[in-house]
Amino acid sequence: MSGARKVIIDLDVGTDDAWALWMLLKGEKTYGYEVIAITCVNGNTNVENVVENTLTLLSAMGRTDVPVFRGAHEPFVHPREKKAGGNFHGVNGLGDIEFGIEVDRTPLQQEHAVIAINRLLNAHKGLVDLIFIGPLTNLALAMKLQPGLLKLAGHLYIMGGNRHGVGNVTWSAEFNFHTDPEAAHIVLQSECCPISIVPWETCQRHAVPLKWRMEELGANEANPMIRILNAVERKIYGQRPNWMPCDAYLVAAFIVPDCVVKARSYAVDVELHGALTRGQMVLDHCREGVGHVRIIDDIDEGQFKELCWKTVA
After folding, report:
1. Is 285 exposed, middle or buried (0-12, 13-18, 19+ CB in 10 A)?
2. Of 31, 85, 188, 307, whose CB is crowded by the most CB atoms within 10 A?
3. According to its UniProt record, which protein family does this protein belong to (predicted)?
4. Cβ contacts of 121 within 8 Å, gap of 6 or more
């Protein structure tokens, strides 16, 4: 696929990261792009767990041809906050479950993720799209190594932040941006390529019934990935009524641009100092339509479900 557009995906696996990665890799040939790197970052769990989870998923998919790079262990400025009892995804990011998968470690590279991002963007100027579905630490570090780096990218897609100040980890901040607000600030305030963001509120609006996810989409447990994700999501979702694979919504917007029903452009920044609002994404609502950041407000749920079916097929 030498002539295809290139993709780097940066993640902090996480079940929704797992769905996003699976969807992205399954769509390569059909939609005409090539995933050239998976970069791992501290977020839902520590980066060592993220690496292990990524290798486990690639082994289950039979996609150990894709290189994996270990990235940042901590946020850009402040140390990683310790969470009592882990978080929504479990301590290890995948529900703390043993899957019985023989893990192939071949994809793991010695090169650091930050160096790999710089190298690949310079090697394929203007041809690499970036999909970042965890904290933006790796990208901010890469940008500090080479000012103007993001001018070499085609498009940057981000799952993170919040449009109206609705939080999911504090009253006012979304998890990815709250984990490393300084990194998000560095990225969003840079001179760079076009940016598209799926914020937390969009994910809330497009939650899918958990019954559909488990009983229909997840019916074929002969598939190793379905078996893994069913086990994890049965545990972490419990009796919740809805399934919300936030990172997969972003990947859907990348794969099928027509999936985006409503989007608006803004100047965007991230609050760094507020006692109650640290990590909140702030939009210049007074100048709606002006700015290089496109906020994706709505996606076509029918097209999203179709991509889900293509993923598990």
Report:
1. exposed
2. 188
3. Belongs to the IUNH family.
4. 128, 142, 149, 152, 153
Q: What is the DSSP letter of 79?
A: P
CA distance 50 to 93: 7
CATH assignment of the domain containing 158: 3.90.245.10
Beta bridge pairs of residue 155 = 129
Regarding beta strands 5-11 and 33-40, do their DSSP bridges make them parallel or antiparallel, or are they unpaired?
parallel
- Strand ranges (E), 51-179: 68-70, 128-132, 155-159
Quick one: residue 208, left, alpha or beta (phi over 0 = left, psi -120 to 50 = alpha)?
beta
How many domains are there within the chain?
1
User: What whole-number distance in Å separates Cα of residue 218 and Cα of residue 37?
Assistant: 27
Predicted confidence (pLDDT) per residue in 263-304, tens digit = 999 999 999 999 999 999 999 999 989 899 999 999 999 999
Residue closest to 124 by CA, chosen among 255, 35, 254, 189: 35
Range of the domain at 55: 5-312
Residues 6+ apart with CB under 8 A from 33: 1, 4, 5, 6, 7, 27, 129
**Within 13 Å and on the Cβ side, how many CA atoms surround 216?**
11
For residue 218, give the nearest of 12, 54, 209 by alpha carbon.
209
The DSSP letter of residue 135 is -
5: Cβ–Cβ under 8 A, 6 or more apart, which residues?
Answer: 32, 33, 34, 127, 128, 129, 154
Burial class of 197 by CB neighbour count within 10 A (0 to 12, 13 to 18, 19+): buried
**DSSP symbol at 300:** -
pLDDT in tens, 123-134: 999 999 999 999
Residues with catalytic annotation?
A: 12
